[in-house]
Design goal:
- Helices cover 38% and strands 21% of the residues.
- It is α+β, with helices and mostly antiparallel strands.
- It folds into 3 domains: 21-75; 90-202, Penicillin-binding protein 2a (Domain 2) (Alpha-Beta Complex); 207-558, DD-peptidase/beta-lactamase superfamily (Beta-lactamase).
- Strands 13-12-22-21-20 form a 5-stranded antiparallel sheet, with helices on both faces.
- Strand 6 (143-144) and strand 7 (150-152) form a beta hairpin.
- Helix 9 runs antiparallel to helix 21 (544-558), helix 13 (294-303) runs antiparallel to helix 20 and helix 14 packs across helix 20.
- The longest helix has 28 residues, at 48-75.
- It is elongated, with a radius of gyration of 44 Å.
Amino acid sequence: MFRRIFAHRISKQASFEIDPEDVFLDARNIPTFNVDQLEGHLEKPLPMYMSYVFLIGCIALFLAFSGRLFSMQIVQGDSYQEKSDKNHLRSTPIFAHRGTISDRNGELLAWNDGTSGVGDIPKRRYTTTSGFSHILGYVSYPKKDSSGIFWQDEYLGKDGIEKVYQQKLQGVAGEKVIAINAHQEVEAENVTIDPMHGENIKLTIDAGVQAKLYESIASLAHRVGYTGGAGVIMDIHTGEVLALTSYPEYNNNIMTNASSSEEKARVTSDLQSSSKKFLNRAVSGVFTPGSTVKPFVAIAALMEGVITPEKNIFSSGALVIKNKYGGPDTVFKDWKAHGYVDMREALAVSSDEYFYQVGGGYMDQPGLGIVRIDEYARMFGFGTTTGIDLPNEKSGTIPTPEWKKEVFGEDWLLGNTYHTSIGQYGFQLTPLELIRGIASLANGGYLVTPHTLLGKEEEKVDLNLDPQHLRVINEGMRQGVLDGTGRVLQIPGVSVASKSGTAELGVKKDLINSWVSGYFPYENPKYAFVIIMEKGDVHILQGAVFAARETIEWMRDNTEYTK
């Protein structure tokens, strides 16, 4: 431009003509014009240090921006993403209502209390009637993290029916999408998947009978000092469990809903209690059965031809084994002298000496021997689980030479066979094992599978027992009620057949387990029962038969089961 102006000015000077524009373009035409005001200030370079300052500032700004960008995208990216999501849409579960649990008559035992309790999670409630905790169990609720995201979106059954039938009861959670602003306020919501509520189930349990059975066991324990107890009543033909309870019990409402410090302290106390409140003694408790095994030893002896029903064995009060080496004799005591007894009477009065000889042999009386005792015990389901639809079922123990060798490292002795024949030594059973065996004696020789879900398919195993042999055993158990050890069960209006048992515990034998087993009505058997009272003083005069009588009397007066 300046070149163009300069060339133009030369050409004008040569012609002696002045362009009007030159007045404004040529500073020389304005004497007072400050050239530095325009040209000088524009052309003056910046100081060097200012360039460095400017460059360093740009670099620092770039680094700060890059660091912040790295922090936001890489280091805190997930957090900002979550915050961004919170400012927009969030998916949250819609909890399905857990299925209800009712007894065979439709009485609710477990249900949902609307949407109160834990946020919008339906609260689980249980009957407050005593005796149901072990069979019903309890649940844990869905759980969420500190940000409100659920990492467990369903109830979980923790014990009893709640645990076993988790899949039936739980249902399937639904889903809804909610719009949330930056202030965590819900602006809108939309259900995308509807929840599928759990299946309602009905049990074989009769709530009235269950409550009375527990009350009878608990009352007896309080009166005379047993530390625990359990009872089962079962349909001998179908395996339907009419009642199954264990004392003492925990509180399943508190286990599920404990929120206060007092309730949480109670849970801790129950868990640490020496009374084992969480042990379902009917299912998971193994106990020395005592004389309740005698009917099974008796029918095994009949089937093996070891003895006839009519043969008499003299009970002097003790069976004495002479020491061939001149040392002291070995004495196996009976609880009393019974004189001459045949099989029916031996069952009725519970003669130990009779069953010593039938089980192990004595003089000219052959015995079954431990191998055959073990075989028949297992045939009746002892030493194995029953398959009941309740958790944590245990199986008992049948002592054998192999078992003794493994446990004690010792050889089997004849005396061990004698004690096994009367349900002592290492013999152990659960109440469920025993009631299944008793039911097979009453129903014609079938092993049924105990179950608690109404309508469940029945399972039976034919033991191929001789009806004549069964009749002898049943007559002996009935005689035990009429004039034997079960006389307490002479209940007007209800004919009961029974076999009781007392098992001595400990080295000092100062504690006992008291058992009673049996069935009713005798003429047309329908229901078997087993009750055990745990760890009472050896001098206690009231045993399990008293709890059985109280329960059966109530059933006679309040139900149709005894008809």
